[in-house]
Amino acid sequence: MTEDRAPRPDPRKDPRERRDVVTGEVQDEAQLIRFVAGPDGVVVPDLARKLPGRGLWCAADRASVETAAKKGLFSRAAKAKLTAAPDLADQVEVLLKRRLLSGLGLARRAGDLTSGFEKVSSAITSGKAAWLIEASDGAADGRRKLRALARKQSRAPGLIGLYTATELGLALGLENVIHTAFLAGRTADRWAQDVHRLSGFCPLLPESWREEP
Q1: Which residues, other chains included, contact 63 with Cβ-Cβ below 8 Å and sequence gap of 6+?
Q2: What is the pTM of this model?
Q3: Which of 44, 45, 75, 173 has its CA 20 to 30 A from that of 145?
């Protein structure tokens, strides 16, 4: 697994399947985004899969959502006239980022996160870290050391650099959050499903990080 690519969810953990409105193929629900038609006939994302109405499922990547919106494929699947905004894929990206950040806050309160260079370093070396969450505006030195440590593990944790230190601090109720580890477990597995879906809409790391040793 590369550091900047989310691992695919294990289909055995979520066997439900749905039909993709673009390809017509039946896929694991974990690899799709659910949409529903609002009262005004506007297509809206339903990331939690809880909104009422018939679900319209689309592959979790920008190209698929843009194609479905542009070609009226949501209307075809619903057999009704629906309106899909041109920026629907952007809406999904924003909502997924918000959902992931909220998930970090919940995980911290449940004791599934640890923050700070030394604690994160310990979580990595002990094999307990499923994800390394680095502030996008953090100094490169500490990040490089943790990434190098992660590469030495038999199963390297995933890496995300989507949020600033301020955004992470607000979500976690802490100050100056630069290094965070999401500890392995069922909560991390569920969170990873949204990470995988988001990876179809935007890079998980800043471009400049790709050149780091």
Answers
A1: none
A2: 0.89
A3: 173
Average pLDDT of 180-205? 97
Strands 26-28 and 17-19: antiparallel
Distance from C-alpha of 12 to C-alpha of 8, rounded to nearest angstrom: 11
Whether 133 and 182 have beta carbons less than 8 Å apart is answered as yes
Alpha helices in 33-87 (DSSP H): 62-70, 73-78
Q: What are the angstrom distances between the C-alpha of 110 and each of 3, 13, 27, 87, 133?
A: 25, 21, 32, 35, 17
Residues 92 and 95: their CA atoms lie apart, in Å, by 5
Look-up of token digits 């290094």: 179
pLDDT, residue 106, reads 97
Tell me what pLDDT residue 15 has.
59
**DSSP state, 26?**
E
Give tens-digit pLDDT for 96-109.
999 999 999 999 99
